[in-house]
Amino acid sequence: MTRRELAHWARQPVQVAVGLVFPVMLLLMFTYLVGGGRGVEGDPSEYLVPGMLTLTMAFGLEGTMLAVTRDLDKGVVDRFRSMPMVSGTVLVGRSVADMLQSVAGLLVMGAVGYAVGWRWHDGAAAALGAVGLLLLLRFAMLWLGILLALVAGRPELVQTVQVLVWPVGFLSNVFAVPESMPGRLGAAVEWNPLSATATAVRGLFGNPGGGGDSWAAGHAGLLAVLWPLAMLAVFFPLAVRRFARLSR
User: Fold this and answer.
1) Which of 141, 176, 203, 240 has the most CB within a 10 Å radius?
2) Which pTM was predicted?
3) CA angle in degrees (0–180, nearest 5) for 232-60-153
4) Hey, how many other C-beta atoms are within 10 angstroms of the C-beta on 140?
């Protein structure tokens, strides 16, 4: 199943390229035009790039959602069920392919970030820990996307569902420090799962914005693990159960 999904990359190179280029465009836009990361000490790119790496883990779910809904809509899943395989293999194969594409996206974003001035300062072990937190968040978001795709059922409904990702992404500390926001909004932003991962990743990279006065900011590393695990505990079984019901 994973090999099948990867074969689609060669057949749809434009879609893969757009998925990799779109976060890069956002990074360049906020670095040179909008001014993300302003108000922090040092190079703003060292605040913005870790945030964009986090946001990249939330974006791109529409590709997975479209793939799942197309297979459902065209009856491909029904044909797979007639074969001697575990039914969940279809979802697992899709998730593995998505994670590989996420690694590619991190490499591209890291290279572009390095070109615009971003650096990490705390060694390879801490950097690998940051990458691990990013991929953990992606894996949790992925199963949310699979569940939403199974609920939607049709490709044309994916565009409506994926709009829900944007508020979660922008109501975070990806682009600006919560202290610059109105009181209640800033407090809510600090509890956003993306904010927890972005803050923890900044701390591991040795970039500014890796801490704060609130409990959420001070325990961002803990929340960066607990939030994705909680999401997996909810969305993974729901997705598997929803997929199992399709065969009844």
Assistant:
1) 141
2) 0.86
3) 70
4) 24
